[in-house]
Amino acid sequence: MTFVARKHEFTFPRPPLLMGIVNVTPDSFSDGGRHATTSAAVIHALQLAADGADILDIGGESTRPGATPVSESEELGRVIPVIEALASKVTQPLSIDTRKVAVARAALTAGASIVNDVEAGRTDPEMAHIVAQTGAGYAVMHMRGTPQTMQRNPMYSDVVASVDVFFEERLTWLSHHGVRPEQVVLDPGIGFGKTPCHNLQLITEVARFFRHQRPILLGFSRKSFLRAWCNQPGHDRLGAGLALTLWSVHQGVQIFRTHDVAATSQAIRAWDSLEGRFPPQSSSETTSPLPCPAGQ
């Protein structure tokens, strides 16, 4: 299975991809606007790249529950300077986290290679045309309603089946608009119109989505449902997030969107080494790289 995003290509099986989160917003739930300026966002993105991010996901509009929408011009002003600055500094593909067609178009022109769309093109079919014309990668996420309404009493008779049907419908729709299957990754939308129980159902039954033969992206980094295991602020929920990440790696999930790239990368590399799938990379600090010879 291959994921293609313009000039970038990832072939699976391979170690999971890490999508590092760069929030260029003053109202992010996870970092409180620490990277809201262009310079701060670029510095943060470069650090994520150094920490092991395979993709850098730049967003200029918060989509947390109840978030206030921002104008097209404001979102453009936040993300385009960051993408332009990073395009000449990193080799990793840049992703634009947006639901606005004009922002996606401008970001792809500025150097982005992936569109991460929480609305999956439901509100404007032009998004599919842009993805098809540019050959960009496209992250299709399931969301109930909008960020303003999605957490108002979310109910499903079977949340996993509902998301599965949504993926099938979106893949068919994208194909009709000229988007090739290898351009698409699927995101169940953890926390987007779901209760904590719905989120856990989606994670524990994530293998049901593999039938679509597309990489699965999970994003649960620092989200509020992790308080079931740690009643802490977002930046202190790393332990619970890593536990879910490793469980999902074991199931075969291919992409993780995370704020904590360095810790997630270390955890996944150790887990993969224990499972014998991908050998650890030796370093100058390692005198006897694993796996060790028998008896040592």
Give the strand order of the largest sheet, numbering strands 1, 2, ... along the chain: 8-7-6-5-4-3-10-9
How many domains, as an integer? 1
Beta strands, count: 10
- The first-level CATH class is given as Alpha Beta
CATH topology, what is it called?
A: TIM Barrel
Order of SSEs, N→C? EEEHEHEHEHEHEHEHEH
Gap from first CA to last CA: 37 Å
Fourth-tier CATH superfamily name: Dihydropteroate synthase-like
Q: Beta fraction of the residues?
A: 5-15%
Q: Tell me about the biggest sheet? A: 8 strands, parallel
Q: Write down the overall mean pLDDT.
A: 87
Using only C-alpha atoms, the radius of gyration works out to 19 Å
Instruction: Please estimate the helix content.
Output: 25-40%
Backbone structural class:
alpha/beta
Report the CATH architecture. Alpha-Beta Barrel
Low-pLDDT sequence parts: 284-290, 292-296
Large-scale geometry: globular
Quick rundown:
This protein is α/β, with parallel strands linked by helices.
Overview of the structural elements:
The strands form 2 sheets. The protein has an 8-stranded parallel sheet, with helices on one face. Helix 1 crosses helix 2, helix 2 runs parallel beside helix 3 and helix 7 (238-251) runs parallel beside helix 8 (261-275). It has one domain: Alpha-Beta Barrel (TIM Barrel), CATH 3.20.20.20. The longest helix has 18 residues, at 159-176. It has 296 residues and is α/β, with parallel strands linked by helices. The chain is built from 8 helices and 10 strands. A hairpin with a 2-residue loop joins strand 1 (2-5) and strand 2. It starts with a strand and ends in a 21-residue tail after the last helix. The model is unreliable at 284-290 and 292-296 (pLDDT under 50). It has helices spanning 38-51, 72-87, 101-110, 126-134, 159-176, 196-204, 238-251, 261-275; strands at residues 2-5, 8-11, 17-23, 55-59, 94-97, 114-117, 137-141, 184-187, 217-218, 255-258.
